[in-house]
Amino acid sequence: MTPFDDHPHEECAVFGIYGHPEAANLTYLGLYALQHRGQESSGIVASDGERVHSEVGMGHVADVFTEARLDKLKGHLAIGHNRYSTAGQSHITNAQPFMVTYSRGIMALGHNGNLVNAGDLRRELEATGSIFRSTTDSEVILHLVARSLEQETEGAIVDALNRLEGAFTLIMMTRDKLIGVRDPYGFRPLVLGRMGEPGGGTIWVLASETCALDLIEATFVREVAPGEMIVVDEEGLHSLFPFPPATPTQCIFEFIYFARPDSYIFGENVYTVRRQLGVELARENPVEADIVIPVPDSGLAAALGFSAESGLPLEWGLVRNHYVGRTFIEPQQSIRHFGVKVKLNPMRAYLEGKRVVVVDDSIVRGTTSRKIVEMIRKAGAAEVHMRISSPPITHPCFFGIDMPTRKELIASAKSVEETRLHLNADSLAYLSLEGLLRCVHPRGGEFCTACFTGSYPIPVHRVEPQLWLFQELKASEHRA
Ligand code: AMP
Questions:
Q1: Against a cut of 0.90, is the pTM above it?
Q2: How far is the CA of 295 from the centre of ligand 1 (A)?
Q3: pLDDT tens, 217-274?
Q4: Most CB atoms within 10 A, among 72, 270, 305, 345?
Q5: Does the domain spanning 12-249 belong to CATH 3.60.20.10?
Q6: Which residue in 11, 177, 155 sits closest to 79, CA to CA?
């Protein structure tokens, strides 16, 4: 086993809070609101200024944290992390936040994103004696901080972070400091909120998305800027920009699929963007049909926009079972394969004899979409027109969205017409890149659209062969 054969794709959630007597309980709630960003493992580290305690476990937030575990997490300072589930790498040693004791004291860290030079850094560190306990990129960061010759913790962190290339939104803590960082490109979101404390002082909150602030009734202050590092301690909050300047390239796929619709990230509301994608899609690719139906939940907002723009009525054509978890075991023997039916059931009465437009946000491998088309046909639809509110995904993501290898991305090998044939749809159309870009408003930069264009904001040619290898191994493991 090479250290990289389950190279992680860190789609994750981070959360941190300073100054509240129930910091861990609020972190638990924050992570609960951010469950969509990661379901594999969850963890919280809390400090009362002297003692630091960590609880991490596999599974959903509500399963990992029992009352007894939360009770152990005492103090006014806490950070938390949810990690995404991907095949073959589900292991407690990869669960975060990581906590270590080193020469400067205690440090804990949670990471969202992917480093493109993690392999190089890890080899370099291992060659000089570092021992790793996980296979994640994130542990590399702790080693770099520990080895820095800078005296102060903050300086050591800055020193370490300047060695990183790629996507990193980080939440870190020491015994008495909360630290939040976004890489200079700002691939992944991070927002700052505050709460008024009954006792007077300001309580500062950092979270991947604003939906976490809403749940705990914190006020949104602003986003942490790309390249910004925020430090909160006894003296309050201060901000620094410790990286050489770069043009921000925030991830457009957060808007398309990943973030929660009620969140505000990258300066706008996710639902508003997603709905507008549907409006643009209807303008670019009109179709004669009777009804529009969303693929729940990923296509909901775009289907609303499509229906509003086209004037075609929106119907709830597919009902989703929301309780299908990772623990669902499909009976293997005599019973047939249920596939997507476990998750979705068609509304026969509304589909029968109808020309149906099915709206979803994206097609990755095409496997699910094909089953959905088949399901709608079997329910009696006269025609099935698939409309996708993003361009074809032709390239994998190296910055933290879990995408399969290039050869598994259906649009990397097949044309739109070939994909339509594969899906067995009467028509298939995607939103254009121009249409997508009309719906978002970059402030002081642009968006990373590499999954649609192959134009990566950070050169990946040096790391690509390694990553291809990790991905190939992961994929073969998945198939096995
Ligand atoms: P498929 O037809 O198999 O390519 O699956 C398409 C579905 O995958 C769509 O409903 C998307 O919303 C969903 N999807 C897109 N990106 C991801 C991702 N990174 N992880 C899980 N599902 C995704």
A1: yes
A2: 11
A3: 999 999 999 999 999 999 999 999 999 999 999 999 999 999 999 999 999 999 999 9
A4: 305
A5: yes
A6: 177
